[in-house]
Amino acid sequence: VDVREIMSRYYIDLIASVGFGVEIDSINNSSHEFRRMSIKVLEPTCKNILRLGSTIFMPKVKDWLGFKMIAQEVEDFMLNMVNSIAEEREKSGTIRKDIMQLLLQLRNTGSVSTKEDRWDVGMSTSAKMLSFEQITAQALVFFIAGYETSASTITFCLYELCRNPAIQRKVQQEIDDVIVNQSEPITYDHLTRLKYLESCIDETLRKYPVIAFLNRECTKDYRIPGTNKTIPKGTPIVISTLGLQRDPNLYPEPNRFNPERFSDLKSKIADKSHLSFGAGPHICIGQRLGKLQILLGLIAVLSKFDVQLAEASDGELKFNKRSIITCSEKPICMIVTERRSV
Fold it and tell me: Topologically, how does it sit relative to the membrane (predicted)?
């Protein structure tokens, strides 16, 4: 099976449900409009590369040329969906514990509450705090960042577990030890006890950061140590996440998949050298949800199945240089077999 394709469908189903209360079942219905838009927004086309590149590196030129970061078709789809969901929930009083519910609360009341008795969207004021366009902008961020990033990470993690069967067996043993009765629901307590599996995810994010670079702005004049070079305040800065996280001075044997290096992350790894989710005030707001999604996906696969690389994928991995998200040039195909010990 093409693991990335399966995982992309799995996570778009999850994001559609958790974010918007929409059940799409793209595993069985790959032509669903939600799935089609998810492909369109991140496909490695020249237009998308130009949109992203101009937004990051030449924002003034982008504005002058009238470029948008998102295709108009995707923007219209999201705006129509947000309008439809808001209208239905405000009229019917439907309550669903998802991101849209919180955004509608904020629009109508100016605040959000996750208390059991305060999940209604609220209609206490006629002066709306957010427009539908502003809600749509927030929904788009969640939509774009929430699924393909997880799909990419879990694909690379499974790829490394295929190449390191001893690590795969160790992960499966930990899952068996923590989740003794697999017929019962998985709890948050279960997830917090899967330390080795979490280390595998951290090591995957180190070796295969979702985005190969971060863009920031220098907030004050900074002199580079040991030189007479100064970076002026306001200078756009691009940080090579991939280069930093494969620096042998920070990570010995950087090309080796070694989850043990994260067993004591705080004391052994230089501060701010692991930037898969960014750092500081602009750290990824979805970091916890993203990790939970990946943990649950790996548990679902590895608790029941063994995975190994298909012959076509058992070679040197090459990245797709045109893709916005870190992904392989060719599909990563795996042979999935039911675990005999389960």
Answer: Peripheral membrane protein
88 and 121 belong to one structural domain: yes
Beta bridge pairs of residue 215: 238
Q: Is 295 a residue whose pLDDT tops 70?
A: yes
Among 80-94, 180-194, 272-286, the minimum mean pLDDT is found in: 272-286
Query: What residues form the annotated binding site for heme?
Result: 284
| CA distances from residue 268 to 194, 250, 265, 271, 342 in whole angstroms, order as listed | 20, 9, 5, 9, 36
Instruction: Compute the distance between CA of residue 290 and CA of residue 312 in angstroms, rounded to an integer.
Output: 29
- Worst-scoring range by mean pLDDT, 57-71, 143-157, 199-213, 264-278? 264-278
Find out whether 151 and 128 touch, Cβ atoms under 8 Å: no
Residue 309's beta-bridge partner residues?
A: 334
Q: Supply 260's token pair.
A: 């043990």
Q: What is the predicted pLDDT for the residue at 246?
A: 93
> For the whole model, what pTM was predicted?
0.86
d(CA 269, CA 272): 9
Binding site as annotated, residues: 284
Q: Do 98 and 233 have their domain in common?
A: no
Domain range for 293: 164-303
Confidence of residue 267 (pLDDT cuts 50, 70, 90): very low
* Cα distances (angstroms) measured from residue 167 to each of 70, 135, 199, 253, 310: 40, 43, 11, 17, 18
